[in-house]
Amino acid sequence: xDLVWIIGIVVGALIVVAxxxxxxxxxRPQVPAAPSSLGPTAVPTETLSRDAVAEIDRLVAAEQKIxxxxxxxxxxxxxxxxxxxxxxxxxxxxxxxxxxIAVQRSSPTDAAALRSSLPGSVASEIDRLVAAEQPxxxxxxxxxxxxxxLKDSKDAIDAWPPAPKL
Length: 166
Fold this sequence. Notes:
The protein is mainly alpha-helical. It is 58% helix and 5% strand. The protein has helices at residues 2-26, 50-61, 65-75, 80-88, 111-117, 120-131, 135-146, 150-158; strands spanning 45-48, 101-104. A two-stranded antiparallel ribbon has the order 1-2. Helix 6 runs antiparallel to helix 7. The longest helix is centred in the first third of the chain and has 25 residues, at 2-26. The radius of gyration is 25 Å and the shape is elongated.
């Protein structure tokens, strides 16, 4: 009977050690990713050709958003979220068919450029929220409209430029 207890204790101890080692392995710090070569203030710019604009216009008009996002990503170097947000805001026929559209990706630290890239109504609402000292609502709205992460949105709202005087 004593042998059964000893075996049970040994097996239990081994299980505890296995669980703890797996837990500690999962919480081990990860090697940070290589820093971006663009730097914190760089604003990469890509251009959509008039053929790409026409194709995206056709797909958006036909309510084929997934295909439009794919075409947008094929012609620019943007993330899936940025492409989805761009297609969500896409207005068919808003670009002249004879010119290319410059697609600008704002750095989160460049709040003025980020503000100018948003639709006027959204920028005005964020201005109102910042002036009313409601940063959480402003961050939430900015995240929804720009596709930025929480930290980037918070940094942008903290550096948000004052509303232009009328």
